[in-house]
Amino acid sequence: MLWIFQKLKDSGFDTWVVGGAIRDAMLGEPVEDWDLATLARPQQICDIFPRTVPIGIEHGTVGVIASDGVLYEVTTFRKDIEHFGRRAVVAFAESIEEDLARRDFTLNALAWSPHTGRMLDLFDGRKHLEQRKLKTVGSAKERFAEDLLRVLRALRFAGQFDLEIERDTWDALLTTVPELHHLSSERIQEEMMKVLGKAKTPSVALNYYAISGVIAKLFPEFCSSAGKLDSEAVGFSECARACDKVSPSRPLLRLALLFSAIGSGQDVKPEVVRSSVEDLMHRLRFSNSDTKATARLVWARLLETPTEDPKQCRIWLNQVGLAQFNDLCRMWIAETRVDRRPDPKNWRDVSSRIRFIRSILKEKPPLTLSDLAVNGTNLQEAGISPGRRLGGILMELLKKVLNDPGLNSYEILIDIAVELERSEGKNVAD
Question: Which of 133, 187, 205, 392 could tie 128 with a disulfide, CB 3.0–4.6 Å?
Fold first, then answer.
């Protein structure tokens, strides 16, 4: 990184490390991204460095690729000209001071010069970090009005870094929540996934989401028919805390745990919750594959879990699917670990349930159509006409095999299939 500074300095351009890199370093967090701010204009940056990528060149950001392949974002000093709540009109600025003045929170308005070791702190960001306090740069009301996403960023930072939101900042945040419907779905989704994918304990930020009214405003699926969410409600609170017990590397699994709270305390069927999850994720512009997988996992979690009856277990595995089973185990374990001192009985129940299901799986029972000893071609060779009826017979065979795996042989299933066909023909004739 220092070579970037040196080349910019040699070219006569003032350059600083800014933003999250300084914040994370001062908080003892791992620094993932280094962002640089410079007086150089985008084209000048491209002229200075041989390998660049126009990441957001229209906004002044150029990606500089180091010899080891690492990409550093270099952005021209900027100042805001006009704001619309969802975006700002920016212009290039002439100083780092102007650039810092446009930033959201004091902990993000820090700049450091590797050349001199100087830290530029115009808004007491270091003091607020030491106090574990989150405060906007200047007027909180104005900062949130400039970009509504800052409301969600404030809640994420407070939760992720265990910060207290300063009173004026909190009051302005609350008055801004009713305007959040103006935010794009993509930005809301991105912030939610940062909460679930970065924080060690996302429940803190999620609790802020609840008490601030953000959940009720943006995620009404969690609320009662009256449109209210009790942040202390067992369903939401426990599901949020269960997210803490899953690795940040599995944000979608955390999301499924959280979505399991939808309809909690109400007599809502798993199919209805599944539909609500799909609608919510489509609204937030999740991919079809992520939506389908997450909604199915939530649905599977809400199904009645198998008893010690092998037959019922096989039927349950057929419904759920093997692809979901390991994640279901993780969800059960996370939910059991919510309390600091988990109930030993609950832990034994979960452990016993998982061992029992795995014992059934070790027997390698037929669970899907592909596991049957016969297929559609075999049935046609036995005289069964292709079409909807053939598919229906295959499903009937699977049901019988789920009840009794011993029936899963070619000869037995062909005989059963032929008898089913005869019975159907007789019923039609009658």
Answer: 133
